[in-house]
Amino acid sequence: MRLDLHSEMILEEYQAKLPVFEQLKTVVLEQLRRCLDENNIVVSGLEARVKTEKSLSGKLELKGYKYHTLDDITDILGARIITFYSDEVDLISALVEKLFDIDWENSVDKRKMLETDRFGYLSLHYVCRIPEALYKDPNMPELNQIRFELQMRSTLQHVWANMYHDMGYKSEVEIPVEYQRNMSRLAGMLELADEQFSRIRREINDYRRNVQSLVASGNFNEVPLNGDTFRSYLELKPFHRLAEKIASINQAELYEDSLMLYYGVFYLLGMKTIGDIERLKNEYKDEAFQLASLQLAGTGLDIVAYSVALQNLCIVAVLKQGFGKAGLKRLFSLIYGENSYNAQRAQRVYEQAQKINLIP
Amino acid sequence: MGKTLVVLKGRIDTTNADQFQQDIAPLMEGEHPDIEIDCSEMSYTSSQGLRIFLLLQKSVNARGGKMVLRRMNPQVKEVFDITGFSNIITIL
């Protein structure tokens, strides 16, 4: 690669400033990570790179005449935030505007550059500086003068840009005309998918909020049983009283384990609403306690899992509904997974249930 | 990466639970620990034993590993079942 004298001078400046760019990269990543954490934002990716000498040489060879000094090249350090959803890009850009000094003249919102009938690269590019109030290193005062580029885009926008880049094209006009239409169609499809993901996420959030208030209001018969409603129901600790009563058999410690596993069990027991679970609990809680007493009394075992309440409730429900030993074996397979112990356990529990007249 | 095989023999009760905890302390260190515990010669565990299994499982999970208890006799399995610990600890 042959560079003219002017470009060679820019390249020398780059070599001299490389440690500052590396330090700037560390600072930018640290500040962005801290900002995202403080605002409880989870992103799909956060990355940064300092342009390699080879890449810079290539750029200078092509359009070195455009730059007076190294400072005119704003993407020597490039950082990127990849969000899960397209509507998070604006949220993050608002935070970035507060965090860094933005060079608005050189920043571009590529999302707004496309004509209404065109589909292609969508990303928000800010050219930024680190304000001294945010970070200052007395040994590297130039760190606050250097501009860097920050790209913000969604995961699907990133996919499109990556595929495009992988094909070896830097701009749309380079693509052979026979392929431009197909690339545009793909870009349009991804843009639609991006919008749909954002919309579905918003709707699910709305649904969860509605469900939470419905469950909290106690209108259990109106709440269909699904993973979200069961999770909200568990927040009310509906099995706590039974679990405490079982723990009291041996004055035991109650260990709070996850009860979400029982969603599938209740579903297979034919429960359609949270109200059905409430009825099952109220109907069988005394027998569930009786069974637990038979099993635990006199053992001296002074720790029990919270789930033992649901375990015994479900055992009683299976037996009361006439599913017998086969039903118990199926229940244990659901709770513990398929294993060689389940048949033995079903037999043992069945015998215990007979002792306290649980079998209809 | 291989897994650590632990063979337990006899009872875990108030007389030896502290010793058991000391013995398994090395398993609470290191990265991505996969632990398989052969319980075929274990005849009983008390609540102290359950608490130690729970501690070990939490430690293993926190480090990205898996803990599995195998070949448990029915009497010992009963202790895990009636306390609800079979819901928490993987027993194969």
Structure, described:
- The complex is a heterodimer of chains A (360) and B (92).
- Chain A is an alpha/beta fold and 360 residues long.
- Helices cover 55% and strands 10% of the residues of chain A.
- Chain A has helices spanning 5-38, 53-63, 88-99, 155-166, 177-217, 227-235, 240-247, 262-268, 274-296, 308-320, 324-336, 341-355, and strands at residues 45-50, 77-83, 101-102, 108-109, 124-129, 148-154, 253-255, 303-305.
- The longest helix of chain A is centred in the middle third of the chain and has 41 residues, at 177-217.
- With 92 residues, chain B is α/β, with parallel strands linked by helices.
- Chain B has a single domain (4-87), classed as 2-Layer Sandwich (Transcription Regulator spoIIAA), CATH 3.30.750.24.
- In chain B, helix 1 packs parallel to helix 2.
- The A-B interface holds A 252, 255, 257, 261, 292, 295-296, 299-308, 311, 335-337, 339, 341, 344-345, 348 and B 46-47, 50-51, 54, 72, 74, 77-79, 81-88, 90-92.
Can you tell me the residue ranges of chain A where pLDDT is under 50 for at least 5 consecutive residues?
none
Number of helices of chain B: 3
Question: What is the CATH homologous superfamily assignment of the largest domain in chain A?
Answer: Beta Polymerase, domain 2
How many domains is the backbone of chain A divided into? 2
Alpha-beta classification of chain A: alpha/beta
- N-to-C order of helices and strands of chain A: HEHEHEEEEHHHHEHHEHHH
Highest CATH level, the class of the largest domain in chain A = Alpha Beta
Global mean pLDDT of chain A: 89
CATH architectural grouping of chain B: 2-Layer Sandwich
Biggest interface and residues each: A-B, 26 and 21 residues
**Secondary structure tally: strands of chain A:** 8
CATH superfamily heading of chain B: STAS domain
Give a short account of the largest sheet of chain B.
3 strands, parallel
Unreliable spans of chain B are: none
**Overall pLDDT score of chain B:** 90
Query: CATH topology of chain B, anyone?
Result: Transcription Regulator spoIIAA
**Outline of chain A:** elongated
Helix content of chain B: 25-40%
